[in-house]
Design a protein that fits this description.
- By secondary structure, the protein is of the alpha+beta class.
- It folds into two domains: 55 residues; 156 residues, Intergrase catalytic core (hpI Integrase, Chain A).
- It contains twelve helices and eight strands.
- The strands form three sheets. The protein has a three-stranded antiparallel β-sheet, with no helix packed on it. A three-stranded antiparallel β-sheet has the order 5-7-6, covered by helices on one side.
- A hairpin with a 2-residue loop joins strand 6 and strand 7.
- Helix 9 runs antiparallel to helix 10 and helix 10 packs across helix 11.
- The chain is elongated.
- It starts with 7 loop residues before the first helix and ends in a 6-residue tail after the last strand.
Length: 297
Amino acid sequence: MRKEGYRESTCYYAVRGLKRLDRRVSILEPEAVKQFLANADWSEGGKDRLVEDLDRFYSKFKGIKWDRPKYEASDILPYIPKEEDVDALVTGLSKITGTFCLLLKETGCRPGEAWMAEWPHIDFDRNTVVIKPEKRSRSRELRISNTLVARLHLLPKNRKFVFHDGTKHPIDGLKTFSRTFQKQRKRLSAKLANPKLQLISFRTLRHFKGTMEYHRTKDIVYVQRILGHRSIQNTLRYVRLVNFPEDDFVCKVAKTVKEASELVEAGFDYVCDVEGYKLFRKRKMNVLLSLRKFDSC
């Protein structure tokens, strides 16, 4: 796979999947493998990816002929959280983990892209970050908030990467970091008595960003550029339904320039001036959102 140009992460997960299968049934016996998969309580999407890896293993490595079974990933709608739940999660996590999640929320980058972010990629003067792409997608330069910039300033800068400390292979390091996040999320969910926090993952924050940007702009090309998709088809599959009632808003009042700028950074839109104060509004997030086939994005 490396010789054919597959990415290191793709090779890693292909080998891991085959090893996982071989612990349960000999992968050198295709018929036994097919029987096991038929009875295994695994997701259809997981089986489909595994069959792809098996097909490559049999045909190109072992020269074994087999009739590959057909599986298709189910069209499961992912969970899109309220913004107040996302903010509660970011605030309650540790300094590094919370900053990582805030970067995912504001940029919509993939977890692996955020994990491999380097300090030179962040422009503190212009409040931007350059996202180096995964999955052969496009690189992009995105704006980040003053809040995120302030949090990034608090992180140690004596290493190459912002979050990855370089002591482990990047894939193993991200797995360990993900487990740490899950433990912190569980404790925070219990502390705040909010079980919905348990439904928020790293990938959820990418889904959240894509959906909110499409709702805000109704510009599918803009969302494509934000998410780094090379094909517009990926972005068209991404958003299936966004339905916000027109009168479902949160309203805020700004008395100073600083308060107004903070509201704009938080995504509020200016409405008008009333008695010397500026009124802003932002649509609530507790509405019906649906997206399609995020696993491929």
